[in-house]
DNA sequence: GGGTGTGAATGAGTTCACAGCT
DNA sequence: AGCTGTGAACTCATTCACACCC
């Protein structure tokens, strides 16, 4: 029941990292015990949802008491396989790619970038954080060699599908995509896309389209 | 019916930018007409979902024909209020913040960064792309002055809530949050968070926790 | 008393399937 | 013939509400 139960909804899986994150902050604050309603309030979901989500994986709480923060955090981390460091390939070493390589958050959380790829001949052979930049064509060789099955794609939209196809052929099973385009992957490969512009566009729907009018008549203060 | 219909599910709104993006690529390819099944195949959703989503806003297609790509794109852009440029405040000018300022994708898509804020005294008064870096304390003054109601938060987790509170008091109604923490906002404010680590963690659930074993016995090539 | 875990009820979102238009 | 727009059916997700336990 713990190994890859396909009946657990993906939407539940996507909430687990938020639970882990929040539990981590709670340990940092010295909180040892938390109830589903306290945790829910902190995350912005209902207590029932927290309890239902966790119930897919086991019984982690104590009636009348709540959850032991450290214990629950360990459990969630186990479920997500966060116990060891995952090696990651980064494709695309432009402005965004460089910011990603230098961001310490990945390594701190167990995702260590171990190989860099780009197609720009001016970048090839260059170094970032002690790693050589290899051409796309080296993907089929280097990725199996290093045993990587996680990749970050930070290339322009027009080469994203090509890059993703190469990665998948090389054995990658999880892809974080920064390119603003929908990429096709087979069912046994996971992909998540981060598109800041799409996120902004989905919020402007709710905004008054004429901000000048709003600021002029002072309606901006709620 | 076109102005802020609250019965339209947010999940539909969040798909519209993807439709707009895909329709934009289609115009670039010279495609003039598209059916719901073609568009769905491209995006990875069903034809029925496309038709249902669009039906919340009007009747944009022609039976037996499909949708005119340019017309549908214009309609979706109107719905999302993408017709003009939105002024944006950026809070946090660290590595990530700098990458954001220099990324041309925001301006190209109508989100123009017009003010920079940070709390680090070493950065204050400095410039990025011709804009001065102001202290957090200037938020209540500068944001209403420029009439901004969209903001990007790229500060460390520990100051995210404080910054968001300041922004909201200054009139911001839409926030793109890069800090890996859940931030509380009132119901009339929209917030979307981008957390690359959380995205990766939600995928490792599906992966074999021991990649060494996988690469050793060659199971990576499917 | 306080809080979990979970059947049952409800609500939300997706897909079916087809009438109707071109 | 081909494809939209949409009631109706269905599936999936959330919330209710309570037995049970600490």
Automatic annotation (TrEMBL), chains A, B:
NAD(+) binds at residues 92-97. GO terms for cellular component: cytoplasm. InterPro entries: CoA-bd, NAD(P)-bd_dom_sf, Rex_actinobacterial-type, Rex_DNA-bd_C_dom, Tscrpt_rep_Rex, WH-like_DNA-bd_sf, WH_DNA-bd_sf. Pfam families: CoA_binding, Put_DNA-bind_N. Transmembrane segments: none annotated. Modulates transcription in response to changes in cellular NADH/NAD(+) redox state. Belongs to the transcriptional regulatory Rex family. Homodimer. This is Redox-sensing transcriptional repressor Rex.
């Amino acid at each position: 029941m713990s190994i890859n139960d396909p009946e657990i909804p993906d939407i539940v899986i996507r909430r687990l990292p938020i639970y882990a994150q929040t539990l981590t902050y709670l340990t940092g604050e010295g909180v040892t015990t938390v109830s589903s309603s306290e945790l829910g309030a902190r995350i912005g979901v209902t207590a029932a949802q927290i309890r239902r989500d966790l119930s897919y994986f086991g019984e982690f709480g104590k009636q009348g008491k709540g959850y032991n923060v450290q214990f629950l955090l360990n459990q969630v981390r186990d479920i997500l396989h966060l116990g060891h460091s995952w090696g990651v390939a980064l494709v695309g070493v432009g402005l965004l790619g460089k910011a990603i390589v230098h961001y310490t958050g990945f390594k701190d959380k167990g995702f260590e970038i171990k190989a860099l790829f780009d197609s720009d001949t001016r970048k090839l052979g260059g170094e970032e954080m002690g790693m050589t930049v290899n051409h796309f064509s080296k993907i089929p060789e280097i990725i199996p060699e290093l045993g990587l099955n996680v990749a970050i794609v930070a290339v322009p939209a027009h080469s994203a599908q090509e890059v993703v196809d190469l990665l998948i052929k090389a054995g990658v099973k999880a892809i974080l995509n920064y390119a603003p385009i929908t990429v096709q992957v087979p069912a046994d490969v996971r992909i998540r896309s981060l598109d800041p512009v799409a996120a902004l566009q989905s919020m402007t729907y709710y905004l008054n389209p004429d901000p000048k009018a709003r600021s002029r008549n002072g309606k901006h203060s709620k």
